[in-house]
Amino acid sequence: MLKTGDEALILSVDHPDDIRDQMMANGICTGARLRVEEVSKLHKMMYLNLEGRLMAIRLSRTTDIQVNKLG
Amino acid sequence: MQQVLCVGNPNVGKSSLFNQLTGLHQKVANYAGATIQEASGLYDGREVIDLPGLRSLWSNSPDEQVSIRSLQQAIQAGDPLIFVANGLQLEDSMILFSQLADLRAKMCLVINFKDELNKSKISINAKELQQRLNCPVILMNARTGDNLNRLHRVITEDRFEVPTSFCRSMHDVLVHDRLVNHLDTAFYAERGGQGRFEKSKDHVRRKMLIQSVLDNVLKVPATASPLVSNTTRFDKIALHPIWGTMIFLLTMVLLFQSIFSLASYPMDWIDGLFSHLASLASEFTSWPVINSLLADGIIAGIGGVVIFIPQIAILFLLLGLLESSGYMGRISFLSDRLLRKFGLSGSSVVPLLSGMACSIPAIMSARSIRNPKERLAAIMATPLMTCSARLPVYVILIALVVPQGRWLIFGYQGLALLGMYALGVAATLLFALAFSRQQSGSDSAIWILDLPLYRYPHWKAVLQSVYRKTISFVKEAGKIIFIISILLWFLSSFSPRSSTFLAQEYETRSATDENLSEEAVLLEHSYAGYIGKGIEPVIRPLGYDWKIGIALLSSFAAREIFVGSLSTIYSIGSEDEGSILERLRKERRPDGTPVFSLATALSLLIFYAFALQCMSTLAITRQETNSWKWPILQFGIMLGMAYVGALIVYQLF
Fold this sequence. Notes:
The complex is a heterodimer.
Chain A: E1 7-13, H1 17-25, E2 33-40, E3 45-50, E4 53-58, E5 65-70
Antiparallel strand pairs in A: 1-2, 1-5, 2-3, 3-4
Chain B: E1 3-8, H1 14-22, E2 39-43, E3 46-50, H2 62-77, E4 81-86, H3 90-102, E5 107-112, H4 114-119, E6 123-124, H5 126-133, E7 137-139, H6 148-156, H7 164-173, H8 177-182, H9 186-194, H10 198-214, E8 218-219, H11 226-238, H12 243-261, H13 264-281, H14 288-306, H15 309-325, H16 327-340, H17 349-354, H18 359-365, H19 372-381, H20 390-401, E9 406-407, E10 410-411, H21 412-438, E11 448-450, H22 459-493, H23 499-510, H24 518-524, H25 527-539, H26 546-554, H27 561-572, H28 580-586, H29 598-610, H30 615-625, H31 629-652
Parallel strand pairs in B: 1-3, 1-4, 4-5, 5-7
Antiparallel strand pairs in B: 2-3, 6-8, 9-10
Helix pairs in contact in B: 3-10, 11-12, 12-15, 12-21, 13-14, 14-22, 14-27, 15-22, 18-30, 19-21, 20-21, 20-29, 22-27, 25-26, 26-27, 29-31, 30-31
């Protein structure tokens, strides 16, 4: 599970096709590099810096994203 | 006429560029999805079209489908594209660019946010990139128009080119001859269905290709951009579980306090001006009928709406600042978890908050919601949000019954207005919950939220937007109010009874009622009086007399007409030329009690909070749902809620 401050490389996104397509359109796909800026348990959201782009994603959707932690 | 399309990812500055080119004032805001439908304008004899933002040609959401269809037609017709990319996220923006290059679109690449690139010490060698892509590349700042002259030359000299280096590469890797030869955009849909990993492979290959094209062209410093790091630093507070929520609540309280406190002075001036105009008009000509039409009909009706311009302008200004600064995205973040409990999500925040200005663009902005069930719930519930047309009604009723005192720094009237907005939000959420429970379909749409960088509000664009929206409000409402005021004046000034009957009636009744005026007798026996009395049995349980009934009836086309109608009706029934508020305060029932008592005012507030009195909203619901079923249901349910709610409140108080 990713924590605040983690940097990682996305290995794969194991969601059903429609969800994976939307993630891909938003840049969440194999090879993308991300930094976790905040994990908010209250809001159930993960705040990401994805190659300079800031975005938030529901925590429930992050469990099927396989990553390789960097550093 | 040749068309030129502005295309690119959401929130990259397409509308700012479109405005620079056409001199128009398309809405610009600092969040994804600000443009919800195509806009067009003229530039040097060409039609420039601003398309809603698009992430990829794989996209299938309703708002993005609008752009894909237009692109398909434009490319087939050989029309050129101005591709606007965010310079701070160039690699990301280029994915769509490469897809359009596959389709052999003639393009010019505009890399926006030149000023922010400088601040972030990111360098882009535009000349080298132009050579590599084989199409014009312009670094510019769409907000200020910096380097617009270069784009001007590209457009006027038709220097758009197909970025062949991309096409050839993609052709070798992915694309079959049929795509290149026949511009078969259905390729994307078909390829998507062929294999689970097809799109992923395509995406990764594109990224690799883009990285190779940008190699040594794009130089990004090792340290994070100060714009990004400042945004993430501020977000630690703005999205904090406690501080973030407090900032949000404080923002909302200040917003509604400002609407009352800042607007009070100009409102007093306008009120005084119209009272003066009415008194001048009452002796303007030697024909009393014309004087009455001017003073009691037109001036009273128009004045009833013009007085609210300051408050409406302040509301639009503050909402514009929220949109322009980038804070809107943070409100989505903070509210997603709460909204999920009501069948909505953070992506419903834009329609809901836009609904505070006007339901029509708000309902259209629901196109960006991907889940059909949630989208329908947002469309159905949004009209319950307190729109600017409700503001005049609330303001006059609150001013009638809520004292002007203060609690700490908060005025009672401002708090009461905040309460009405809170009621609107609560009603919207409960309606959405009830509605989504009745609907089948999945709740599990993916939810990703773009958090734009915080930016200083673009004052010029915000002020222009305030001006346009306010003028539009006055024009639209003014037209209807002008006609209805004259109609109401006619119906209220003329009677089907003879003048002898009216004189006898006055004589008989004035013997027992010394306060009775001839005007009051005429009004009671006028056409409007008979119509009002006809509906009185239905509205009496809510605490309304027949005069309020007429105003209520006239406001079913558009609710902002209510105050103008009240103003006209009570002007005719009164010899007093004072302000609207004074006239309403002095109005008495036959037993001497005020017509606008606390119970009546509260009942009216509840009625207007729930009733869907806006023809345009019903029309737009029909357009967006492609069915009459939903607007009819929406109208019926909300009218029922308004009637029952007003009845309960009146009976309780």
